[in-house]
């Protein structure tokens, strides 16, 4: 008969061993990925610094790596549009070596820091004594064009129901996770997510008016019998509320 205590210890040891192997595997994968990215950057730096196109063999010699490693990274760089093939004139029998050079442009697949830009612009608004009106105007300007970009062929909504449905679609595509609500006869749109959450938590006096202006600008563009009157931020930890008014007989 098996000793249950011994069995339990064995199972625990096996789990610990598996966890250790998994951690080592993840570390190795991260190390390999980092090394690969470093080699890719090295290939790119070498081509940018070279006044003439270079061959795979030439790059491999300079970097002291295997030609297949260079070929792998060149294929990726060519696909990304950062490197291009160069055909040389034949000066004798045989096939000339395939040559490569860097494309003279910014790396469209490189690092982006849009959040930093958003923070800079938000701080610029926040230095105003009352940033709300300017932030609201910026949001309205954005709202007037955002629907056309998301739904180019679509015409203006015909009635209040279509307006609210279109507004929900726009907010959904922008990542606000909207939901339509009716509370005591009032039309509302609940926003369950904020695409600029960290900024909104620290600079709600700027970010929230931008969001209100976005909705107002979109609705105004449609010439709709609906207005977005106000936006109450964080009425719950995961909810902001936009309050709508339906005008006249279109209710």
UniProtKB/TrEMBL annotation:
Coiled coil: none annotated. It holds the Pfam family HTH_20. InterPro entries: WH-like_DNA-bd_sf (IPR036388), WH_DNA-bd_sf (IPR036390). It comes from the Bacteria. This is Transcriptional regulator. Transmembrane segments: none annotated. Residues 7-19 have a biased composition (Low complexity). Residues 1-37 are annotated as: Disordered. It comes from Mycobacterium timonense.
